[in-house]
Amino acid sequence: GAGVSQSPSNKVTEKGKDVELRCDPISGHTALYWYRQRLGQGLEFLIYFQGNSAPDKSGLPSDRFSAERTGESVSTLTIQRTQQEDSAVYLCASSLGRMPGTDTQYFGPGTRLTVL
Amino acid sequence: RKEVEQDPGPFNVPEGATVAFNCTYSNSASQSFFWYRQDCRKEPKLLMSVYSSGNEDGRFTAQLNRASQYISLLIRDSKLSDSATYLCVVNLLTGGGNKLTFGTGTQLKVEL
Q: In this structure, what is the dihedral angle of CA atoms B104, A67, A59, A88, given to the nearest 10 degrees?
């Protein structure tokens, strides 16, 4: 079946502009995660959605970052007033969520964001 | 101290060698552990979960030592195709939910 998809695959923007990144999880997956990976660095947790529970936003680096999820489907990550330090690959992952944190996460291909 | 620490490498080994990676974690309340593999410019993919009793999957063996707070991954008879970055992942159940923390990864290069 279809895996996790993300769009756009690449985004180049100018400093100060807002960007919106989209993630379509695997159908039926109740858990959804956003991560950031800077070049040559590890994955940095941003936010986690589980069903209808309040999201875990503990990883969002600043109030310029926000994310929403519609039910158990699409999620969007919004970065306002982008800075050059926001340049990274933004990865989305989803999992069944039956045993959150223990079931397998499936990653999307990521959105490569470049802020000029 | 980082929540999850790994030696970044690179580990350059000849084909057929045995190689081992360690990963340490700081929070003793961490509940579950994984190894993920990430190929260059690709997304991470689950390699294997790590169970308390240790577990093996073909040429790969994972071990967990809760007392010393480290996990390990052993790769036997390494292949060229094993070249990748191996990410140690630790899950901690918090009041706000589950939080998976990824290490920065250990790079493996298997050479002829």
A: 30
